[in-house]
Write a sequence for this structure.
């Protein structure tokens, strides 16, 4: 494995090995010294051409706990905002000797373009591209589900997951559908028809338009953020109506089975897709998802950045 | 007509058992304050050897000897040269490592690089009073100034040979093999 661009590039055993590695690395975060020397002397660039809090600081924390040097590079305050092309940015990173680039971009496919070009020879990690994929988020979600409901199994066979909300604009949903079904879970998408992508009927999922009929039957309820910044059309009449039919409130929380958990990739629109009292309830593992994100991203960096001998001629 | 691979049994199952019992006695002799001893096995096979040695030491000493495992993968110096290795569990027994007499246990002592990594890994967990090393087999060819305090068997080998340790917990039987010419 050299790049992490899409969950569809992973085999089941590769996905499981990332989760297993993350499980062991999570112990480091519990220890007194939260640092390993593994990636000493390697340079990781966080190239964020789109806003992010969690993912960027999570990758930064993961890289630092493995002793890598981290360079943060965001659109605002860099030449990206002056209109520099991806190619010129990549050539700059190559000249600075980046061993890996963690890229978030509003254009779907930007990480793949970077990886398949000859512009740079480091690893490329997709940290969210447009409405395409967000593989590290799906891996941390699968890690969190396995930790709570896996009962020691390596995969997620038999676990039922509902992904609720704005599937159309959600790269998190796409990556999660691929990964959770790869690991054997059963996924139900719950959304208004206007917020489901074209061709969703060919996905390996069940589709429902009625949250109340699904919520009692699943082990995991994963709420998606309503991505108002990507909505140029009117997808639902108003926020109150969306919230009434597709929001997770405390009445719906009571319908959930006792062992089930509530997830959200963040950032949350409290009061829209998820009520504040649900987000802060004991069922919610939303804060834990963030903590698990660091361990999972450490595992990704470890697996991508070790086992690559220096190519002849480079450095 | 494939090339014959020469293989010989260097230690049989009873040889291994005898060696481990002898190591158990030697560790206890070298550390009179037996309550201070903690064994740490290096996964995978060192961890099983550590458990076996802990059982026989506990019998001899008359009290429980704490035993744990110490994974050294993230501290290796050859991570870039090989495919990613799976990370194994580290479990430090109750009482920690601070001020204790730590005995590291590995199956084969070869270049010494594993032990260097183990010392680094241990240093991040705490500050033991002493760190000692026990190995079932010492095959020579050290690349670092490291030696074992307790050795089951010194096996002179050529650098092209490989030494395989099989243990019943993983491989179904106990034996040490030398492969190659």
């Amino acid at each position: 494995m050299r790049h992490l661009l899409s969950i569809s590039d992973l085999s089941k055993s590769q996905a499981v090995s990332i989760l297993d590695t993350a499980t062991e690395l999570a112990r480091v975060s519990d220890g007194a010294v939260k640092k390993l020397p593994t990636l000493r002397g390697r340079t990781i660039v966080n190239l964020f051409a789109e806003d992010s809090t969690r993912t960027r600081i999570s990758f930064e924390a993961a890289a630092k706990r493995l002793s890598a040097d981290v360079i943060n590079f965001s659109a605002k305050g860099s030449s990206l905002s002056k209109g520099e092309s991806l190619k010129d940015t990549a050539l700059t990173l190559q000249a600075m000797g980046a061993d890996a680039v963690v890229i978030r971009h509003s254009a779907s496919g930007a990480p793949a373009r970077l990886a398949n070009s000859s512009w740079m020879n480091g690893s490329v990690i997709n940290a969210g591209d447009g409405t395409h994929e967000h593989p590290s988020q799906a891996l941390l979600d699968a890690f969190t589900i396995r930790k709570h409901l896996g009962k020691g199994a390596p995969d997620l066979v038999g676990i039922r997951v509902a992904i609720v909300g704005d599937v159309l604009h959600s790269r998190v949903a796409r990556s999660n559908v691929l990964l959770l079904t790869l690991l054997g879970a059963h996924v139900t998408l719950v959304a208004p028809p206007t917020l489901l992508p074209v061709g969703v009927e060919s996905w390996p999922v069940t589709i429902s338009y009625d949250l109340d009929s699904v919520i009692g039957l699943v082990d995991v309820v994963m709420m998606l953020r309503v991505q108002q910044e990507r909505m140029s059309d009117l997808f639902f009449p108003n926020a109150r109506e969306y919230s009434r039919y597709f929001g997770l409130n405390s009445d719906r929380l009571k319908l959930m089975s006792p062992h089930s958990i509530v997830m959200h990739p963040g950032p949350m629109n409290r009061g829209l897709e998820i009520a504040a009292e649900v987000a802060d309830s004991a069922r919610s593992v939303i804060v834990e998802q963030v903590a698990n994100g660091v361990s999972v991203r450490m595992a990704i960096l470890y697996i991508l950045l070790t086992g690559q001998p220096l190519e002849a001629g480079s450095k | 007509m494939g090339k014959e691979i020469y293989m010989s049994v260097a230690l049989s199952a009873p040889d291994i058992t005898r060696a481990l019992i002898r190591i158990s006695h030697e560790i206890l002799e070298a550390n009179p304050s037996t309550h201070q001893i903690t064994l740490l096995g290096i996964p995978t096979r060192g961890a099983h050897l550590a458990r076996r040695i802990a059982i026989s030491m506990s019998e001899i000493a008359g009290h429980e000897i704490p035993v744990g495992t110490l994974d050294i993968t993230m501290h290796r110096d050859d991570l870039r040269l090989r495919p990613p290795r799976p990370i194994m569990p580290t479990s430090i027994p109750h009482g920690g490592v601070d001020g204790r007499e730590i005995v590291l246990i590995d199956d084969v002592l070869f270049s010494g690089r594993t032990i260097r990594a183990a010392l680094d890994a241990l240093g991040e967990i705490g500050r033991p009073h002493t760190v000692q090393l026990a190995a079932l087999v010492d095959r020579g060819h050290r690349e670092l100034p490291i030696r074992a305090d307790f050795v089951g068997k010194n096996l002179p080998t050529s650098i092209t040979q490989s030494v395989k340790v099989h243990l019943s917990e993983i491989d179904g039987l106990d034996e040490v093999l030398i492969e190659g010419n």
Q: What stands out?
A: The helical segments of chain B are 13-30, 45-61, 113-125, 168-171.
